[in-house]
Protein: Major facilitator superfamily (MFS) profile domain-containing protein
Organism: Verruconis gallopava
Amino acid sequence: MYVSSSHRARDEEALYILQRLRGTSGEDAGKAEHELAQIRNVVDLEKRTSHGTTYFHMLFGIGSGKLHTARRVQLCIWLQILQCWSGIAGITMFGPVIFGIAGYTNSKAQWISGLNNIFYMFSTLICVYTLDRIGRRWTLYWGSVGQCIAMFLTGAFCRLGLDATSQSETGAAARFGAAAASMVFLYTFIFGATWLTVPWLYPAEIFPLQVRAKGNAWGVVGWSIGNGTLTLVLPYIVGAVNEKTLYVFGAVNIIAIPIVWALYPESNQRTLEEMDMLFASDSIWNWEAEKTFKMLKEQNPDGVALSEEEVDSKVFSNVVEHV
């Protein structure tokens, strides 16, 4: 009886807060009640279909049912790996060399490289304005395009600068080096406005309530894998191909675009309760996820049908299987 009374008290408290946020009169009448019903039903769904909440269960999707937790884990891990291999670690390591080509002394090149490492902190302010307006996917798209261009231009200017240095053309080498250095700053600026932010935000948005904290931890796992592998192999890559390493990072940015387009559903302007519908499809492809989401939203505009009973019904199963 105490537990039941406690739950009712918390429901009343939640309804009160939602009513203060959504309003209770005119067009806002009933919005808080609908949202609370949606939250309740999603919680019931997650309790019903998520039988295991350990990291092992999440990684292999054991007991997650239509929540497809394992797919979400893989998306978060690989998004972080793509972020690491998009070039930021390479710029951090190769930066002093690029600034050295520009004619700066070793100490000054190190100082400018350190300044560049904090430069993109200011570019994150762009995300404050754009992220919710254009969405996560388009943020990654334009970031990949800009980073790719910056990487290829940096590599090209570095090669021209090195060739000029070998021919004792110090003036030309300094100009090409300065151009390469400017491309480095451009890259970090774009990175800070796009790929720095989204891979950390995405895990916080897509996981079910019961495993949301652990879902964010899986994002950190991906970041560790990406940085770890890159730190181990980058010295060998740079030693083998020198400035062409930057072309490798440019190619990774090109590859990232179709990967994001095909596999990563848009989480922007969607409630946390809608994420379970977004990942209800058994297909890994984004267009199938969107198709299933649209159908479920049309049938259940308030999310009420996503209750424990609805998950057990043949209607819900047939919708997911035939989309």
